[in-house]
Amino acid sequence: MKAFISSTSLDLGEYRDGAREVCSRLAVVPIGMESFESMGLGATAGSQAKVKEANVYVGIIANRYGYIEAGHDKSVTELEFDYAGQHGLDRLCFVADAAA
């Protein structure tokens, strides 16, 4: 089983670390931007390619909207959420502490 971990990166590093730790304890392979190799696809297409490898989407939401790549009108994080739903992945979403 593989879990795609999605969130903004600058503010939620500790939460992402925690999600990866829980995945490891459950024998679930975490997929996240920390381990993305250079694919030459751009942020959105690269993330979507990784979402397709996952069995479940884990979203961590807080105060930041995130990076909007040129040519898109939504953040990479929101597009990951949408793409996971379009591809039938269960989406587990968590709201981080407001102080995060």
TrEMBL record:
Instruction: Report the InterPro entries cross-referenced here.
Output: DUF4062
Give the protein's recorded name. DUF4062 domain-containing protein
The record's listing under Pfam families reads: DUF4062
Record-annotated DUF4062 domain positions: 2-84
